[in-house]
Amino acid sequence: MIDQPTWGMPFPGAEIAREAEQAGVAAFCVGEFANRDAYVSLAEVVAETESARVGPAIAYAFTRSPWAHAASIRQLATRASGRLFLGLGAGTRRMNTDWFGTEFQPVLSRMEELIHATRAFLTAENMKTIRFEGEHYQIKAAIQAPVMGPLDVPILIGAFNRGMLGVVGRVADGVIGHGLYTDRYWAERVNPRLDESARKANRDPDHLSRWGWLITSIDNDDPERAKTDARRMIAFYLTVKTYDVLVDLHGWQEPVSTIRSAFKKGDTDAMAAAVTDEMLDAIAIYGNLEEARQRLSARTHLPQLCFSSPPSFLVSNRRRALYARGSIQLFGSAAS
């Protein structure tokens, strides 16, 4: 059992966000996809919130230049000074090459340079030339206008595998863990790798923020539906081979093979059914409120800041709102 973590949530809309701020939420995050842009979404969050930290978790790193990431954050900082964070993620190789039309490899050095160059823009002094010289980015920006000035905006990376976790330890301000992270994965893979890479870069591992997503579905009237939605979300994530390092750690190869076979057939019910109780309990918080409290209390390695995330795969907006309010009950009541 661990102490109650600080909590956040994906932005649930203005009405529920106000309820969450009153209950003590620490942060709201946004993501992006083919139909929504992280920084456009973040502008809405900034306008509709007052005290919580806000930022993308994540924005796709290579769809924009360091200048573009930094300029968006600078504009938003005029409305949310001291509240912003920047979470970046690489995405998959196929997304970058086939969707975004951009280069991907070598992904680790590209991400490392992007962090350095973006930070150079964010910390730039007025009327001073911004310089960065790397393999992928060469910056020499003489911005002759008094529009800069250093901003304190932490840059975090959505990371899963050893290589990207190493980048976090070397250059970023922290990690944003995936919703699939288990206690064991945090304890045996994530935290040791962050500590090791930070020390090799002569950085203090204790200064790294360790944030992460936590699949949370609470329904007092229909806890079985909440359980099924959590199963389906986990199954959908595990169709991606990027996460096989976690699958191998837990010995979940057989159920994951079944999940992927069902996915190819479009059988989402079979996908959910293949998620074992062991997998479900290791990853998600679900059920009615009392069951969720017990499951949260039983966890041993939650992130410092938990983004309590309702399942989204084949889940309606109405039900996601219900789950968001369940998260407020779970974390808000525990924090009060």
Features:
336 residues, TIM Barrel, ten-stranded parallel β-sheet, two-stranded antiparallel ribbon, globular
Please characterize this protein's 3D structure.
With 336 residues, the chain is of the alpha/beta class. The protein is built from 14 helices and 12 strands. It has helices spanning 14-22, 38-48, 66-77, 93-100, 107-122, 162-171, 183-200, 223-237, 244-250, 253-265, 268-273, 277-283, 289-298, 317-335; strands spanning 6-10, 27-30, 53-56, 59-60, 86-89, 130-133, 138-141, 155-158, 174-177, 209-218, 285-287, 305-309. The strands form 2 sheets. Strands 1, 2, 3, 4, 5, 8, 9, 10, 11 and 12 form a 10-stranded parallel beta sheet that branches. α2 (38-48) links the parallel β2 (27-30) and β3 (53-56). The longest helix has 19 residues, at 317-335.
The CATH architecture comes to Alpha-Beta Barrel
Overall spatial form: globular
User: DSSP helix count?
Assistant: 14
Uncertain regions: pLDDT < 50 for 5+ in a row? none
The CATH topology is what? TIM Barrel
